[in-house]
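Milestone 3.1: sequence recovery, worked example.
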């Protein structure tokens, strides 16, 4: 399928492997000339040679640190007037925010917020003057569903998303769109490295961990760099202003589109459907069918507590309304003693908001929420699935590691 981008020039950051390489190869397959970047010369040249050998496009390989002033200057010297800019950089380390220094924050902000902004600033005016430009920021699903141990990533990448939400409203009139791709778990070196770390700390076989994590995804597997690249290529289609200021939450065989406005498009519905089928995703431009009712009172595992789920604005929340053991052995009401915030450790468990921020997603699912666990004082990204009128699956996740509990309806 011709996306109309043959002959264009693209800068693809951090593209020697992983999702960046997936984007570069998908663009090359559409006839786009490339400037690819990475720190490691040998890996970058290997990727460049592979692309040159497979597709008749020009490829410039710039081995540099894109997060540095000199690195960006080298890339922009090789391609001063790109038509397409794919911002991408490795994520900062995980950890506890108490341990992060100002230097840690500065590194995270520089790599995952300021570097993309500097590249946008250097290229967007030329795009507007030429009346064509496509900018995609590859960030993380944690932008939509923040996770406590990813605070450096949450803060920096959410800041980038907020910046883009403002500037994209000004550029779209000149046929320059800026969008975000928020990948879930994809089969990359980074994911495999995480599995190795978990295997080492837990003593479990890597393959067992991999199968368990894959089963927690809607498609029952991890996404591939090729699928991600196809999504990336779709967003740079030349037809005017398909989308701007959107963030796309991407997983294997699934996309979720979050935006404040849906823009008019000059691409026919049949073309959108055809492209979406090619990508194995469905863009959510249609009204959802009637949903099952998740509201009511639910008994948690082993009947330790009852949670009342009800609407809170346009979302759904859940509060603890009953405890099997509401008091300690000393006959004192149980409090949130394990909360990481000392100011909240005195609040009572009874009446505590356990679930928050869930949005309907299909007939019997609610997603993009969080669940708080008083037993460890931590908050996890979460989703709800109504298996039947009396059974609710509650999933909590940290990164790509998920666990599901089954709750039973009380009333």
């Amino acid at each position: 399928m011709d996306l109309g981008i043959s002959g264009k020039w693209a800068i693809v950051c951090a593209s020697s492997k992983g999702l960046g390489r997936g984007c570069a190869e998908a663009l090359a397959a559409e006839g786009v000339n490339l400037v690819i970047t990475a720190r490691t010369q040998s890996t970058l040249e290997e990727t460049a040679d592979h692309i040159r050998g497979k597709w008749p496009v020009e490829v410039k390989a710039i081995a540099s640190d894109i997060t540095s002033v000199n690195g960006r200057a080298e890339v922009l010297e090789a391609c001063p007037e790109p038509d397409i800019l794919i911002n991408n950089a490795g994520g900062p380390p995980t950890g506890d925010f108490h341990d992060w220094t100002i230097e840690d924050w500065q590194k995270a902000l520089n790599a995952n917020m300021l570097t993309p902004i500097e590249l946008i600033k250097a290229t967007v005016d030329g795009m507007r003057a030429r009346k064509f430009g496509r900018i995609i920021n590859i960030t993380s699903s944690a932008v939509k569903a923040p996770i406590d141990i990813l605070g450096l990533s949450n803060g920096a990448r959410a800041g980038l998303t907020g910046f883009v939400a403002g500037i994209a409203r000004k550029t779209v009139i000149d046929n320059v769109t800026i969008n975000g791709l928020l990948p879930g778990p994809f089969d990359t070196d980074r994911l495999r490295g995480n599995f190795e770390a978990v295997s080492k700390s837990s003593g479990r076989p890597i393959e067992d961990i991999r199968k368990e994590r894959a089963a927690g995804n809607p498609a029952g597997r991890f996404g591939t760099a090729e699928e991600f690249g196809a999504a990336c290529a779709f967003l740079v289609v030349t037809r005017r202003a398909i989308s701007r200021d959107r963030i796309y939450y991407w997983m294997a065989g699934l996309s979720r589109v979050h935006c404040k406005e849906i823009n008019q498009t000059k691409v026919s519905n049949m073309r959108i459907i055809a492209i979406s089928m090619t990508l194995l995703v469905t863009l959510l431009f249609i009204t959802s069918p009637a949903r099952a009712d998740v509201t009511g009172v639910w008994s948690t595992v082993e009947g330790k507590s009852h949670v009342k789920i009800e609407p809170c604005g346009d979302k759904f929340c859940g509060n603890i309304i009953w405890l099997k053991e509401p008091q300690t052995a000393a006959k004192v009401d149980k409090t949130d003693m394990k909360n990481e915030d000392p100011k909240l450790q005195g609040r009572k468990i009874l009446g505590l908001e356990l679930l928050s921020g869930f949005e309907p997603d299909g007939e019997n699912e609610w997603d993009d929420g969080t669940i708080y666990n008083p037993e460890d004082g931590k908050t996890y990204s979460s989703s709800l699935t109504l298996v039947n009128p009396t059974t609710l699956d509650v999933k909590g996740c940290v990164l790509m590691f998920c666990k599901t509990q089954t709750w039973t309806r009380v009333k």
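Residues 296-409 form a domain with the Lipocalin fold (CATH 2.40.128.520). The chain has two domains: 9-186+223-279, 296-409.
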